[in-house]
Amino acid sequence: MISISQAAVRFGLSRSTMLHYDRIGLLSPSYRTSAGYRLYESHDIDRLETICQLRRTGMSLTAIRQLLDESDPVSGSIDSAPLTAILTHRLMQLQYALANIHAQQWATKKLLGQLGVRKDLPSFDKEQWIAFMDAAGMSDHDKDLWHSLFEQQNPDGHQDFLEYLGIDPMDIRQIRTYSKKVLSKETDRSVQKSGPKKT
Fold first, then answer.
1. What is the enclosing helix (H) or strand (E) of 32?
2. In the chain, what are the domain boundaries?
3. Strand 2-3 versus strand 38-40 pairing type
4. What is the helix, strand, coil percentage profile of the chain, to 5?
5. CB-hemisphere CA count at 13 Å for 51?
6. Which residue has the higher pLDDT, 198 or 167?
7. Domain 2-69 carries which CATH code?
8. pTM value?
9. DSSP of 53-115
10. Cα distances (Å, whole numbers) of residue 135 to 3, 54, 107, 132, 197
11. Residue 75: pLDDT over 90
């Protein structure tokens, strides 16, 4: 068993963070001494390691606690299905945020050019973006859905991002039109799975 300070140092956390995890029921020590000092067993440390891994993805403490509370009580292993769904959704959020950043970068560079200020910013072309999505393990359907979500949530940003990648204007129109169709199909499929809405 190790103390709260030792556990905090091992994972690069502050003591106050460890205390917060205890307060919200995310990670409580297996033992307390008669003086009230917290002591952590190996399975507590395993849980803390999982917490740190999930936190690095940006997952909220509430979502992490729910996942861990629903894990196998004996082995402590998390059911892969909900974890995969959560991480896939998180990856989509991050990619959407990254695309927005690139769209803003492109718009800023364009505006600077209009003001007569030249800024040779690093370029990010279509091939690099496709390679990035492939490296993230996204299937063609995942890519289509990603574009569809971008189109739905921020159509102007989607347009800016596609222009930023240097895609031909006619191809951009085709991509955006197709993205709307993909989202419509996904919505129809979701409605069919859940059945008609009851009133």
1. strand 31-32
2. 2-69, 80-190
3. antiparallel
4. 65, 5, 30
5. 25
6. 167
7. 1.10.1660.10
8. 0.55
9. HHHTTT--HHHHHHHHHTS-TTT-PPPHHHHHHHHHHHHHHHHHHHHHHHHHHHHHHHHHHHT
10. 40, 20, 26, 5, 39
11. no
